[in-house]
Amino acid sequence: xxITNEPVPSSAGSAGEPKLTLYNGSTGTGRRVTVRDLxxxxxxxxxxxxxxxxxxxxxxxxxxxxxxxxxxxxxxxxNHLGYSNTVPVTVEELITLSGAVVRGTRRALIVSDLPxxxxxxxxxxxxxxxxxxxxxxxxxxxKLEGGRRVVHQVEALVQAxxxxxxHIGLTPQSVNVLGGYRVxxxxxxxxxxxxxxxxxxxxxxxxxxxxxxxPAELAxxxxxxxxxxxxxxxxxxxxxxxxxxxxxMAGMTPGxxxxxxxxYADLRAVLTGAAREFAADxxxxxxxxxxxxxx
Length: 295
Ligand code: KIV
Description:
single chain; alpha/beta; two-stranded antiparallel ribbon; globular; disordered N terminus; binds 3-methyl-2-oxobutanoic acid; transferase; Pyrv_kinase-like_dom_sf
């Protein structure tokens, strides 16, 4: 793990504590990243990356690459499970995927989304669902969508010992109310609402706040206002951290990736090429070769 034993600056924790550099490109060895490490990174002004992951093998790759936080997002719905959006994803499905991601990693903090319908009705429902994710999947934190309307859920979870990442701006579970995937927080009134939501979530105990599809200037304002880290997706470069859906980042998503995503590889083309080469070898009798056979 990317922990060095440099003393922590006095502003970032008690003297003599090992300093965690959240990202330095490798896994190293040691303990998992904690929410406290993220708080210290904010104090140091250190930016960090976060990716989604839905299976053990891919999560293991990102963990080895040193990504400090992995999100088992309900974006698994459209990026892994074949649904058209996040709404149909169930608690059971996400617990299964989350368990796989936990087992495939050693260092990253694993955060799981609480699926649509599994926390909105009451703090008690949120606590029951969050508890299942902690006990059955072994995740280190949960994420839920919404502003002031979910602060009692956030309080109940945090008081029970379950770290909560909040998520405001575009909240995909509410796509049917929002009328599509559009930028949120435009105009004075909406911006004020978003700032008030962010403050309320921090006061309720959230350890980080995801800002999705929010104007960059507003995201910067939220980032300056909060003591906890902001995690942007389509929210400009002023956030403390950036999250991307891994299939967008690596070029697995069919068709055009969203404007806020950057394609760092063309995995879809690489896999298509490999599958075609394998198929051609089988048809031609070139696979298996003698070295792939047993005698
Ligand atoms: O489900 C998800 O992947 C998310 C991220 C886009 C933040 O919520």
